[in-house]
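Tutorial handout. Part one gives the primary structure; part two gives the three-dimensional structure as tokens.
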Amino acid sequence: MNELLTTPRNNQIKQVYLGYAARTPILEASKSPLRCLSASELGAVAVRGVMKKSGLPPEAIDEVITGQVCHAGSRAYPHRQVVLKAGLPASVPARGEREECSSGMTSILTAYDALTSSRKGAGRIIIAVGMENMYTPWLVQREDVTVKFNPKEPFATKEMIRDGAPISDSLAEGLRNSTPTASGEYLTTIQCADICAKKFGYTKEQVDEYALRSWKRAIEATGQGFFKNEIIPLQFHDEIFIEHDEAPFNALQKYSQNGVFNGGAFEKILRSMTPIYDGGIITPMSASRISNGASALLVFSEDGMRHAEKEYNITLVPQARIIMMDRVYLEPELFPETPLKLARGSLIPLAEHDVYIEANEAFPPVVMTLESELHLNPENINRFGGAVAMGHPVGCSGNRIVTTLLNIMCRLKKHFGFAVICVGGGGGTSLLVERV
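Part two.
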């Protein structure tokens, strides 16, 4: 179904624009020296990046809408935390989306709805955010904690947890498909990707080949500083400074000799990996990276542009106009196929040479089906790598691929851009934009 549609011929529908996108480096969830930065802290960094790029004063923002999946350890109301940590006025409202992997893109859709609403007080300038920390605390059921809740000591210690208590965490929950199959079985997202690969006839060698392409592209783009204009570096005192996506940057450092990347050694390791499940296809290096990060962008209407000019003498220059947003849902185990269904329903034929595509690489078969079934030019999709190499901070990724889409459209002078992401549980979300 088409969630909403705007065309130049329909003057009854308000035009909504995107711009000033910024994101943090994507951090390795368990290895990064900054792995303990919370989702809201990362989100605040991205918001401050948007504010700096746009030049808007804090009081110009009407609302902040965030997407986040792993809420454990985030404390109450993480969306509101972003507002305050970013230095926005306490009067700025905040709300959040939690639609699994598309949460960060859904925040953009929700911002669109707010900007085009006819209700009194509808916003003009909104910041849409995607944020995630997948290095989260363990979770135990309340009945397995041996003492009563104490507001002065809200976190249970090891000694307070009953022996033999089942323990989980947001990461473990995220890797399990959120909805059972018709037989009542909860498959992991990895198992669903294996099912998709076999359905479309992809071998392990082909999936590895795609993963290798993603890694090589991301490593090359990182080495050339391609993402510098979208990344806001993270700094902790004077001790730690991170300005690159960690996984491709670390691979570049580890497998380089005399400043030259040794692709042969890297390829040998990637191809030697065994599948995660017996009889499966996906390996640890062909699955997307478990990561932390945040991304944000300004979503604004023509009223917002006039308001910024009149009140603050600031000319907002959009990078793109929203043309179409779409969502589909299939059986839970078929979620890797939703981007293909969304792409087939796009207003603009995606095989056209002037369309650039960012598709979230939860797993290679997600993008491989797009390329093979729609006969896409590989140079027009994920040209500088994707989540297999860069990482997939689940609540962030839907927003991050739009940020990168805008960056690449401007660099390559592409007229149209299509961002698409699958959703664990059987869904998918897409966004079609036009460069302005």
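Part three, for discussion. DSSP finds 13 helices and 17 strands in the chain. The longest helix spans residues 204-223.
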